[in-house]
Amino acid sequence: MEESSNYGHQHPLLLILNQDQLIHNQSGVTHCSRCGEEVSAPCFCCVEHCGFYLHKACAEAPLELNHPFHPHRPLLLMQNVPYISGEYICTFCGKDGNDFVYHCSCELDFHIKCALFTFNIAENNLKELDHFSLQHPLISTENGDEELEDVSKCFGCWEPLAKYTHFSPDCRFNLHEKCAKLPFKLNHKCHHKHPLTLQFNSERLSCKICGKNNELPIGFVYGCSSCKFVAHIECVSESLDPVVEDKRHEHPFTLLLKGSSFICDACGIEGSYASYICCTCNIMVHKKCTSLPRIIKSKWHDHRLFHKYFLRVEDFRVLDCIICHDEVNIEHGSYYCSKCDVIFHVKCAMKDKDLYEIVENEDEESPNEFVSSITKVLEWNDAGEATVIEHSMHIHHLTLGDRVGEYVNKCCDGCRLPISASFYYCTQCDLFLHKICVELPKVKHVWHHLCRPPLVLTSNEVFHCEQCLCFSNAFAYKCEECVQRTCLRCIIALTPGVLNYKQNTDETLKNDIFHTMNMQ
Question: Of the N and C termini of the chain, which has fewer Cβ atoms inside 10 Å?
């Protein structure tokens, strides 16, 4: 043990060089006063045994770090996190922190260990990884197939850790062997002007090859700062196939390397340099869009959604995406419902894999397809409206009402809101239902409930709504997996497009629902 300077501490510090000395000096588990992690040798400890410990690397971390992966500004070591929340997200590992932070004004933040580790990667100084074992990328299952062993992601490329040979997690960094040994500079055929250098994506630019952009600027990218060119490590590494064939498109796609940007005809998002064209259909797409699903079933909508490269404007009353509400450019690809005039951006429909499933066979009946709660229509009027119906939630026939003003003191038994719009009523008992409540499906996928199975329409049960937290005995949608229920007011208010696109929905009911939701 050696006595050292106190690194800002009020007492002298001792340098502990091996783990046996550390165990002898500490009582219980102790943590580094800078990085917050459990202390291991070599480290410094207080000679007065006041509980102050520092990893040697944390103690000797420079106050200003000129990082090769971020050459334009230095990273400054700060004791206090420069955000009101008191927390930050590390640009390398993606985990939060509230201790010392290496910070740049462009909102890059690093744990001390992550800043120093990536600095060593840049300097090709990886001695600390020498004694950690390598693990193979795949494991075999009982049926002989191979699958990824877990869902952890590599901190460098953010691809699944188990996809490639990687270092043992004991090193405390999820890292592929290949990502630890990436060349600092390389030439790539998608950007001939300048070499690409390994860097942090501080400007949060989209990859010019695949068009995707991570929500957080975590991990590494290859980029050219002067040209604002960025490419994911995986996109730079993989080869660009000269011809791509996929069963979802009837013709092959051919690689076209361009020196300028293009708008993908499949998703409507800008791409650069590497595109694939179908000469028969005269379309140009990203490589990832050559296999875009033709049909999906989304939790955002009750019917199947179909992908089309081009749509006719006259087929839609409104061209706003019902998820983000921005206008959809129908001169490029989008998803639409063939039964309703609703439309989705591809990026919105495909954003979360948990919120949609791919329909491979168009003729195949899906168990979760729209099933009406109206079990039988007994009478129709001249306008084509169902005037007398049988409904799955009531034992008697329901009749379409035409005198809303006579029932202003009545409430819908489905949503518990006043009868202020088109409604059905029972002639044998005192039951009233809005037309929009009657037409809701028996089973329904909703984006705001995380369980995979659809929700099932129920009635005649007292329940606690998981969204508005109110108790009710009206209609509800129930999850058979977690048994939670959501009231109809919340279902309707949180379903994009139901109120905007149903032709016969009364504005008064729309206002009643949103006013009630805001009051709660």
Answer: C
Residues 6+ apart with CB under 8 A from 461: 473, 476, 485
Q: Kindly state the tokens that stand for 235.
A: 């996109």
Write the CB contacts of 221 (distance below 8 Å, at least 6 apart in sequence). Answer: 198, 199, 200, 201, 207, 230, 231, 232, 233
H-assigned helices in 38-163: 56-59, 112-122
**Cα 216 from Cα 91, distance rounded (Å):** 8
The full length of the chain comes to 520
Quick one: three-class SS letters along 151-196?
A: CCECCCCCCEHHHCCEECHHHCCCCEHHHHCCCCEEEECCEEEEEE
Q: How many domains does the chain have?
A: 6
24 sits in the region (left: phi over 0; alpha: psi -120 to 50; else beta) called alpha
For residue 296, CA distances in Å to 167, 265, 300, 340 come to 38, 18, 11, 15
Query: CB-based contacts of 183: which residues, under 8 Å, 6+ apart?
Result: 198
- C-alpha–C-alpha distance, residues 343 and 310, integer Å: 12
389, containing H or E segment: strand 386-391
CA–CA separation, 279 and 312 (whole Å): 22
Q: What is the pLDDT of residues 25-83, one digit of tens each?
A: 555 677 888 887 888 778 888 888 787 888 888 888 898 999 999 988 899 999 888 89
Same domain, 190 and 330: no
Residue 479 shares a structural domain with residue 381: yes
Which segment of 123-137, 215-229, 332-346 scores lowest on mean pLDDT? 123-137
Expressed as residue numbers, the domain containing 96 is 64-131
Q: How far apart are CA 35 and CA 111, in angstroms?
A: 7
Assess whether 376 and 498 both reside in one domain.
yes
Indicate whether 347 and 409 sit together in one domain.
no
With b meaning 16 or more CB within 10 Å and e meaning fewer, what string describes 22-39?
Answer: beebbeeebebbbbeeeb
Q: Residues 335, 306: contact at Cβ < 8 Å?
A: yes
283 and 303 fall within a common domain = no
Q: From CA 311, how far away is CA 326, in angstroms rounded?
A: 17
**Are the beta carbons of 445 and 298 closer than 8 angstroms?**
yes
Query: Helices marked H in 432-497 — which ranges?
Result: 435-438, 488-493
Token pair, residue 355, equals 């919120």
Q: What is the pTM of this model?
A: 0.60
- Quote the tokens at residue 364: 């195949």
Structure-block tokens of residue 135:
């693990």
What span, in angstroms and rounded, lies between the C-alpha atoms of 173 and 305? 41
